[in-house]
């Protein structure tokens, strides 16, 4: 099943940003493979082939990439979108729970990247587009473990991008803020709750839920993913949506003390 169209592989494509990205990439002329833990239950998308994938499994990742290359001939763009959220104070997540979040958000991204890079380097072209977050560049009280994974993705991607450029491959970052998805509802609760944090943890969940209700549609992020996948002169970072662009600017120009105070105000923390 070789194709003349460029081939994009999107992880976590059954809903939210991943689904919107798969649709947008089809519209941009890509042959798209979307992945899900249970592809049989994914709602079909015209032009998208759904396959099973668990990014936390080395065997699943290698099997999936081999199958895509065998069926489509190559992978031109990998969109690392699969991820999991976690809400709670940093002290409230056990190390085992933190490992679980990192295994999907960071090590899953690394597994996928390492699996596709040999083929991309061999063809001397390719893009790895990572769905990061503005929470990879700013503090996130009561989402410390999740924010830590996105900070890790930012540092990893920026470093690997330097390693890959001479081989015709780019490693790029798409940075949304809050997006209208099921992120809040599906985020992990802490497995080691501490009573002293209970009230503020619920405030944090309310702040998150309120932000998600008024957030950008996933289509906004999907358009930015397509831009990262297709720009003739790609940028390392792509803030996704008006708020992301504002936060990115403010992080650069606002004095650290003032920025710190604004973080506390937005998260309803005592001054």
UniProtKB/TrEMBL annotation:
Q: What is this protein called?
A: Short chain dehydrogenase
Q: Check the record and name the InterPro entries matching this protein.
A: KR_dom, NAD(P)-bd_dom_sf, SDR_fam, SDR_oxidoreductase
A Pfam family in this protein?
Answer: adh_short
Keywords, A to Z?
Oxidoreductase
Family, per entry: Belongs to the short-chain dehydrogenases/reductases (SDR) family.
- Gene Ontology MF, one: oxidoreductase activity
**Record-linked PANTHER family:** SHORT CHAIN DEHYDROGENASE, SHORT-CHAIN DEHYDROGENASE_REDUCTASE FAMILY PROTEIN
Which residues are in the Ketoreductase domain?
Answer: 6-177
